[in-house]
Write a structure and sequence with these properties.
- The chain is of the alpha/beta class.
- It has helices spanning 24-34, 51-63, 87-99, 109-114, 144-149, 166-176, 192-197, 221-227, 252-262, 277-282, 284-287, 311-316, 336-344, 362-373, 385-394, 451-458, 466-482, 488-509, and strands at 15-19, 40-44, 69-73, 104-108, 128-135, 156-162, 182-187, 206-209, 238-244, 267-273, 289-294, 308-309, 321-324, 330-333, 354-358, 377-381, 398-399, 410-415, 437-442, 462-464.
- The chain has three domains: 15-234, Aldolase class I (TIM Barrel), CATH 3.20.20.70; 242-336 and 472-494, Rossmann fold, CATH 3.40.50; 349-471, Rossmann fold (3-Layer(aba) Sandwich).
- α2 links the parallel β2 and β3.
- α9 crosses α17 (466-482), α9 (252-262) runs antiparallel to α18 and α13 crosses α17 (466-482).
- The protein is elongated and about 85 Å long.
Length: 510
């Protein structure tokens, strides 16, 4: 990766907390919370629900000025904000913010275009001006107006655009390299990894909301600082990630980053929403990736790009773990099958047991091969009979049609489909009458208790949550990347706390 120059940044902290609330009281509470993490804070005056609340916040700031650098923003609807009215309304509130102690203000390019002579310095706004350009739909070429604005109109330039592709993300990162006064903000879920790497790549600021997100793809201030530690990422930081579509549901970043934090390893794990796998693979050197996990729909597609693949992964026909060698060679393996076996240890004698695998995708293949190798009699059922027969042939199992499940008996049933996964936890892949077994394992781990597990427990069937497999396969991944034993207890504690918190919230909202 090219070197990045970092000399004399214009802000005391390069992590900018975003305070955005409907009332002045809420904004002040957020402001106090923000001061726990950073000394650079953006105040979104346009998010306040009325002029009266804006006045109240200004008075509160005069009474209790925070020990932080404040950036005032009052973005109009035209510029993607919430303030009704024109440029004069925006400039009025920015001028008021100067009197309340704001040292910087953010003025969007649309406002400059409306001003006589395109000058904001003739208004009594805060002394330092950040000129911003937003495109919530795509990543355009660098606007010429922003380059011109640097000639005296602005002290810093912010370019915030939605990344529709991995290439868009990289282009936005490139903009900030070699400059101390450019703020680069990739927006959207595809742009999230680049947003977290922006400070490493030279952006003068990175934004993180204290509470509600103000732009697509934002990470909360707490997670930005404590989970991803994005302000501590350097060129020496090992970068890992999860690659899939979707990835917003996965707790892999929580699990792996908790592990890195526990052992004080200079490494971070990021979520990559990837639609085009080849485009992502081409971007590996620019992101500086050392390894990655794979989830749907890329577990099988990745195999054509590997230089090396472990024999068990080849037999399964799916890879969920890749190590990137220093020469760029990709080595693939599968830890899903290990996760299945470890999750079932001590619960069931697998040899000669009769097992149903429901599903025929990548996770189903891993479970089928793991259990067949352990000596179980494996039967496969899937939505498409042809897929079930294909998997059964591959692992010397049998295919069984859905209509026969209600009358069949099994020692173990494994759900290897995504049916019932968050946020569609109200569904079940199998009905109560199809659950005729001693033990049921659902490979879904979010929610912790799926509807399928509740069905089984209601019939007196012993159940195993997918979180057991998730943790086991994740620890195996962690160890393959680092060559060290995973801090399993810390990783388990973090994941279980998150899942239990979600379960509590779901119960309270019902």
């Amino acid at each position: 990766m090219p070197s990045r120059r970092r000399s004399n940044p214009p802000f005391p902290d390069r992590v900018c907390a975003v305070v955005a609330a409907g009332t002045a009281a809420q904004a002040m509470r957020q402001l106090r919370e923000a001061c726990r993490y950073t000394k650079t804070i953006e105040l979104r005056f346009d998010w306040l629900r009325s002029d009266r609340e804006r006045d109240r916040l200004l008075r509160a700031l005069r009474r209790s000025p925070p020990k932080a650098l404040l950036i005032a923003t009052c973005r109009r609807i035209l510029g993607g904000g919430r303030l009704p009215g024109g440029a004069q309304a925006e400039l009025y509130w920015l001028s008021q913010s100067r009197e309340a102690g704001c040292a910087w203000c953010d003025i969007e390019i649309e406002t400059l275009r409306e001003l006589p002579g395109q000058s904001a310095r003739s208004f009594p706004v805060p002394q330092k001006i950040l000129v911003s350009f937003h495109d919530f739909e795509r990543t355009p070429a660098l606007p010429r107006q922003l380059v011109q604005a640097r000639r005296g109109e602005a002290d810093a330039i912010k370019i915030s655009a939605r990344a529709r592709t991995i290439s868009d993300s990289l282009r936005l990162l490139q903009i900030a390299r070699g400059s101390r006064d450019i703020v680069s903000v990739p927006m959207g879920e595809i742009g999230l990894p680049a947003r977290l790497l922006a400070l490493r790549d030279g952006s003068a600021l990175a934004y993180a909301p204290v509470a509600e997100a103000t732009a697509p793809g934002q990470v909360s201030l707490r997670d930005f600082k404590r989970l991803y530690r994005a302000d501590s990422i350097t060129e020496r930081t090992e970068i890992y990630g999860v690659v899939g579509n979707p990835v917003s549901h996965t707790l892999s970043p929580l699990m792996h980053n908790t592990g890195f934090i526990a052992v004080k390893r200079n490494a971070v794990y990021l979520p990559f929403l990837v639609e085009n796998l080849k485009e992502f693979l081409d971007a590996i050197p620019k992101f500086g990736l050392r390894g990655f996990s794979l989830t749907l729909p890329h577990k099988q597609t990745i195999m054509r790009y590997l230089a090396d693949c472990e024999p068990m992964a080849e037999r399964i026909g799916a890879v969920n773990t890749v190590v990137v060698g220093r020469n760029g060679r990709l080595s693939g393996s599968n830890t899903d099958y290990l996760g299945v076996l470890r999750a079932l240890e001590g619960r069931l004698r697998l040899r000669d047991g009769r097992v149903l695998i429901f599903g025929a995708g990548g996770s189903a293949r891993a479970a089928a091969f793991a259990l067949a190798n352990a000596g179980a009699e494996v039967l496969i059922c899937a939505r498409r009979d042809s897929a079930a027969r294909e998997l059964a042939r591959a692992c010397a199992a049998q295919a069984i049609r859905r209509k026969h499940l209600a009358s069949a008996r099994f020692d173990l049933i494994v759900n290897a489909t995504p049916v019932g996964m968050y946020p569609h936890e109200g569904t079940s892949p199998l009905s109560r009458r199809e659950l005729n077994c001693d033990l049921l394992m659902d490979l879904i781990y979010r929610p912790l208790e799926t509807r399928l597990l509740r069905f089984a427990a209601g019939k007196g069937i012993q159940v195993v949550s997918g979180v057991e497999m998730f943790l086991a396969q994740g620890c195996a991944q962690w160890e393959r990347w680092t060559g060290k034993s995973a801090p399993e207890s810390e990783m388990r504690r973090a994941v279980m706390a998150k899942l239990r918190s979600e379960e509590t919230s779901n119960r309270q909202s019902r």
